[in-house]
Amino acid sequence: MKQTVGLIGLGAMGAGMARSLRRAGHAVQVYDVRAEAAQAFAKEGGVACGSLAELGAACDVVVSVVVNAAQTEAVLFGPNGDGSGCAAAMKAGSVFVMCSTVDPNWSISLEQRLAGLGLLYIDGPISGSAAKAASGQMTMMSSGKPEAYARCEAILNAMAAKVYRLGDRVGAGSKVKIINQLLAGVHIAAAAEAMALGLREGVEPAALYEVITHSAGNSWMFENRMAHVLAADYTPLSAVDIFVKDLGIVLDMARASKFPLPLSSTAHQMFMQASTAGFAKEDDSAVIKIFPGITLPPKP
Length: 300
Prior knowledge:
- The protein is α/β, with parallel strands linked by helices.
- It folds into two domains: about 170 residues, Rossmann fold (3-Layer(aba) Sandwich); about 120 residues, Orthogonal Bundle (N-(1-d-carboxylethyl)-l-norvaline Dehydrogenase, domain 2), CATH 1.10.1040.
- Helix content is about 50%, strand content about 15%.
- It contains twelve helices and nine strands.
- Strands 1, 2, 3, 4, 5, 6, 7, 8 and 9 form a nine-stranded mixed β-sheet that branches.
- α2 links the parallel β2 and β3.
- α8 packs across α10, α8 crosses α11 and α9 runs antiparallel to α10.
- It is globular, with a radius of gyration of 20 Å.
């Protein structure tokens, strides 16, 4: 049975996820702080909601694709907890699917808060490009109670090619996502460092890119992000400040158990340096701009 799905946050990932849900036959209602983004989706056949409460009241499952825990709090409970979010309007037994990268302990506490309102919860952070979100091919790292999955399994499968069920205990999804972000952040920082050294040594950047992407030193992040550098295109598909946040969460989790993460610490400092140098809102590949004495490729 097709359900009414609400999706909050029509950014690079959320817009594609909303389209994947519609393509699968679900009735999709959306909300975004940018009213024009919601209206654009409505023109494709969805429904644009005028408020979070309107969306919450109308939907069986609400999927949140916002940046962080603070924005998720606002989505659910309103700014400063004023009650204007979607949680108070959602019907008992509805499911809230949280797709942001957050502290696992916060996610665990959120399940408990939502249970007090009679709502079910999936801890479901996501990974993949905007293109994969639009084609329903992204990955979801999820955890939650069986009854929550039973109510939204078809919806999760419509959004993601891989929906990993990592256990009944909320928090497991967020822990795996954080480990993924550890690798992603370190790989981007390492890719930028390698390209920067090549530029400093006078290697032709396109030739370096061609060789590395066909050699053992390649990584998905090198291949994807250094293409942005070659194109001199720092349009933020994933911004520098995303990895300031995500690697900060990685380090907080490790610090709580006194676990050393030397590579993550260094990568975090690199993104922090890029952010404070004025590149916070640029694509995360702009971390290469922290290296002195290099001439970056110009716009083609």
